[in-house]
Structure formats: structure tokens, C-alpha cells
Amino acid sequence: MNYNEEYIILKIKNRMFDRFHIHDDQMTLEEHIQSLMDIIRTELSIKCVRFFVYKDFLKKYQHVFISYVTNSLSIINHEESGQSDVEKNQYIVDLPIHTDRCNKGLLLKEDNGVEFGMMLFSYDQVRERHYSNRFWKSLSNALCQILLGIIELLGTLSEKRRYQKLQRVTNEFYSSMDMEKVLEEVIQSLKEMYPSFSYQLLLANFNSDNNRLPIQYLDYTEQNSALMDAFLSGEFRMEDDRKKKRSILYFPMKGKQGIYGVLQITANQSIIIGHPDIKFISILAQTASNAIENAHLYQQSKKLIEELRLVMKVSQQLNSNLHLSEIVNYIVKEIKESFDSHEVGFVLKKQKEFIVLPGSTNYFFQKESKAFLSFVEEYFQTSKDSLFIGNFIQTNHVKNFPFDSVMVEPLRREGKINGFAICLHKNPYYFSFDSFRLYQSITQHTSLALSNALFREELERLVITDYLTKLYSRNYLDEQLKQSMENDKCGAFLLIDIDDFKSVNDTYGHQVGDEVLKQIANIIMKTLQSDGIAARWGGEEIVIYLPNQSLKYALMLAERIVILTEMETSPRVTISCGVSYWTKERKDHPLKLFKRADEALYMAKNRGKNRAMAYG
């Protein structure tokens, strides 16, 4: 090799070294190759230059060619080059077919003689003879060193970039609870590291309007075995699509509590993806999985806190000594708001009959609800379990029933089912299982509150009623009479006494006498209905107070009770009744009102008993 040939090779090396030194790590693989091609074209005075690298060689440096896209460096199989039978010391070969205006090829060989590629160029025979075979050998070795130097430098930089991307994604993960931000950072890092790949996040459960993320719902009916295998097993899977000449990689997004989806990556089949890249992508997929899991746990904890607050709020309100109607009104309102339900009803058993409690929504007081209520009542006769159905209409348990989502929880008192709480929605599968559990918790607290309210109302009723006749007590009537004379315009007072009641006790005994008292009390309650207050005054005396009623109406009512008593009692007895009346126009007092009624009763007794008389 002469001095001129040595000088050319030295100049090519120096110029490439200057490029390395000046641009350091700022140049891409494409820019490095283009720079080398420019230098060769200039120094050798040729027009066309192209580089080919054998695919087998890529296995060693695959991470560089994956990370850096270049159009100036083609990848081919060694067999495709057509140079598999060249001599050992041969470096220049003729191309059988001109490729991109190139007619010659320089075999690129390492020091050990192993070929890793070829430089194609255009050269005429006259100028080719100007350079010796040693020159072409030296140029081949020099280009090998330069290309390997470029690839190894970029390989180091690629590794550095990986760690930088991992640090960036990790920093985002630990500094933010925003799952979408972390996912965006993961996808962006992958695109920067592997720009030729395409990405898809296949997630099992994700709600977002973020158009920047390549997200699709994971289809559980997907026939793709590699995809579903990765999702179910939690292991990396890969498949080759030979028709489309591509490879598809599936990275499971696995957290500590489950697998949330699959990161799908599609790559050109000519690119060899090595273990370091798979490991790097797996780490990013793991980071994305942790972000999704943290977001799920955060949302779940928020939801649990909200549910706990609701239960505590309901429990606190229910423990504030509310009456039965107040409890139902409050809890129906809370359930409708919390579960977005269409209808809410509470049904309790009273005297062996199930009754819809006031405060329930309108549907439960309509005829259309009777068939469903009967179905629920029959269900709890044989079962103690709750009802939680998402497609009730399809079950055909009740005809023409408009609600598909049904939650029914039994209400228990002393361990026995004493009623049930119903929550309905027209849409199918509207209530989640978590909603059902919350509903159970609320209704259990409600069941206890209803039992306490019923017990309290029972005690209050016992305090203000007579044990034998079930009429109100004298104290209760005194209070109501006093309030009425303060607030109302008028009122009538009826004093009733059983005629010859002593002879009834003497003839039939006190037990029969008690039965007679109960019969008369029932007649009075049936006749009175809700117009007034009836109370046992003492012994065989009963009083009735009619607020805002005239003397005429009171006397008519008294006469009717007198007639019914004689007709319906057994043994037959009669009563006498004295009626008095008060108005706002004159000053009056409960004691005066009683004395006038007593005077009227005395008059009725003196005139033959079994009658009613008035004393205004």
C-alpha cells in the first residue's frame, strides 16, 4: 500500500474522529452513517455509497438498532448478499445487479476475518485499478472499526438513556397519584427509546377520556392465545405474524393484587429484540401496573371512606330518638340519593300482616306493587337470605314488573324477620356488589332503629292507654283537653256510665264485667274512628272528647253509641251519657266542662237511664 493510499485511510479516520469529538453524544445513528458516507464520497470521489449489515451481526448490538432508526443502514441476511462463496482475501466484489446505482461492493470484515456487512458504491474499472487490494483491506478494517465504534458508543448512550427514562418514569410515579400522567410518561419513554414500535394498552377496567393514551378495553373473549396467556399467567409472551412480517410482544401489567391488563408492542420482524430490551420494557410495564394499582387502591380507599361516613352519618341520625315515620322518611331519602334508586320502600309486620310504612316512595302504595310485595313476603317465609338480582324481569317471578335491579334486605327483630327494605332501579345490573354490601350495612342499622322506635312507641302507647280497654288513660285525655281549650275554637265532652254495672259483676262475675267494658270500648272506637279521643275515666266510666265539634254532633254521636251498646253487648247492658260543650267566646275550664257533663249524666240517669242528654 503506497503513501497516498495510507493518507486517504488516515484522513477518513481523522475526519470521523473529529466528528465524534465535536458532536460527542448529540448525533443519532442516522447522522453518524450519513457523515461517514459523506466523508467516503469526498475522499474516494464517488457518487453512490450505501451500507448493509448482516442480520446475524445484529444479535450482538440489537438494542442500538431498535433504539435508533436509520434509512442509511439496511439489514439483510448474509445469504441475500450473494457473497457467501468469496475468497478469504477478497474484499471487492462485483454486484450481479446494480443496486441504487451501485455496481461494486466492499466486504466489511472484522480483524478475525468475520464478515458483518458490506459497503455498496459506484466505481468504474479504470479508477478501481488505482487502489491496491491492501488498500481495500485496510479500508474494510477501518470502516469496521468506525462502524463498531459508532454502534458501541450509541449502545452506551442507549443504556444511559434507558436509565434516564426509568428514573424519569419512577420520579413521576412517586411524585404523582395521577395514573394517567404515569401512563403517559411510560408510553412517551417507550416511543423515545423505540420509535419504530407501535404501542397499545389493553386494560381490563379503565375509565378515561384521555385521547393521548393508546388505550383499549381488554376483550375477554379474544381468541388470541398469546395475549390471553400473558394476561392470565402474568408472564411475557411473544408471537410472530408472518403474513404481515411483524412480531407482537405482550407484557402483562401485573400488580401485587392482580393483573390489570397487557402492554402490547408491535415491531417489524426484521428487528431482533433482545433480553435487555425485554427487561427494560418489563420494568416500564411494571411501573405502569403499580400506577394503575395505586390509583385503584386510592379510589377504593376514598370510596370506603365515603361509605363509612355515610354509615356513620346514618347511624348517628338513627340513634337520635326519631319516631318511626321520621326514620323511614330520612332513610328513604338517604338511600335514594346514595344509590340513585328509583323506588325505596320499607315493609313491617303488624298483627301478622305486612304493611308498607309511610315515608316509602309512591310505587309501594299502588296496586301494581302488590304482586311484587307478595312475592317478597312468600320468599322470606322459606328463606333468610337477602335478594340481590340484576335481571329480575327475566326471572318472570312477577308479571309486568318494571324494575330489573332489585335489592331486598330482611329486617329482623329478636332474630326473626319482621319486615324488609326494598331498593329498585329500572336498568339491569345497576347496583354493584359493593353497593349491595353498603345497602346491607345501612339497612341493618335501620332495622335496629326501627325495632327501637317500635319498642319506644309501644311503651309510649302503654303509658297513655288503659291496659284492659285499650282506650287512652285519664292523664292523656286531661293533657289533650287542656291543649285543645288553649288552641281550638270549641269542643264537646261526653261522660259515659254503664247502667247497673254492679249487678253485672254480682251476677256474672268481675271477669265478665271486664269483657263488657272491652265490648263497649270497641263499640266506641269503631263509632268514633278518628274524630275524637276516648279514655277510661275510672271504674265503669268512659269519656270522649271531640275537639272542634258542635254540641249537636256530639249529642248525635252519644245517642248512636247508646243504641249500639244495647244491641251489641253480651250480656246485654245499657249506658247513660252526659254531654257538655265549650266555645272560645266564653271563659271555660276543664273542670267546669266535666261538671256540666256530670250534671247531664245525672239527668239521664234520673230520666230512666239508657239515654244521652246534654248540658251546655
Automatic annotation (TrEMBL):
GO molecular function: diguanylate cyclase activity
Broadest EC class assigned to this enzyme: transferase
GO process terms (BP): cell adhesion involved in single-species biofilm formation; negative regulation of bacterial-type flagellum-dependent cell motility
Cleavable signal peptide: none
EC number, UniProt record: 2.7.7.65
Database matches in Pfam families: GGDEF (PF00990)
Protein name, UniProt field: Diguanylate cyclase
Native organism: Fervidibacillus halotolerans
Lineage: Bacteria, Bacillati, Bacillota, Bacilli, Bacillales
